[in-house]
Amino acid sequence: MTTEQMPERHVRVVLVDDHRMFRTGVQAEIGATERTGVEVVGEAADVDQAVTVITATRPEVVLLDVHLPGGGGVEVLRRSAALMADQQNPVRFLALSVSDAAEDVIGVIRGGARGYVTKTITGTDLVDAVFRVKEGDAVFSPRLAGFVLDAFASTDAPPVDEDLDRLTQREREVLRLIARGYAYKEIAKQLFISVKTVESHVSAVLRKLQLSNRHELTRWATARRLV
Hints:
The chain has 227 residues and is α/β, with parallel strands linked by helices. It is built from 13 helices and 6 strands. Helix 6 (102-111) links the parallel strand 4 and strand 5 (115-118). The longest helix is centred in the C-terminal third of the chain and has 15 residues, at 195-209. It is globular.
């Protein structure tokens, strides 16, 4: 693209999501640089790939899924802390996730993300959100900002739950679905993973929380308002 063709506004973006078809869809929706001003300079499907691509390309904005192999979006944020702290050329993160759970929103915002939008967002609104985050604004889908206000502004906000923090983002998602009464096959279908993987996640959750069965797990999750 020549300088004459470059849109009046321009932003360099990296897409991080473990579903290739979703990345392709986002690329098609917002990556038409001549029209939107968004230039997709890299993609990644897991934490290690994300850190490598972000470090190599130094984008202005990263669209970051919350649930990723290798530790989730929070781990990407942790390992990219130095890039976020660069005062001259900061890399800013906008979470883009199917989840609208309070713990997911609060987790990535605590990790350093500038905003959080769900995957129901339109392409036009997503482009606008990317540019706002580039300029340093905080951007949230409707009602999600309330989670952050409750967590950071309230004087009686609950402390960090150490038990919950032992779980990976994917384990939390499986935990929440188990607590809602989903069968393993239903969870596998919703999260695009195998039943065997669901079983492994449930076993890991039970072990980490020192629980014996899914009934105890459901009570544990309900007591923490995760359902």
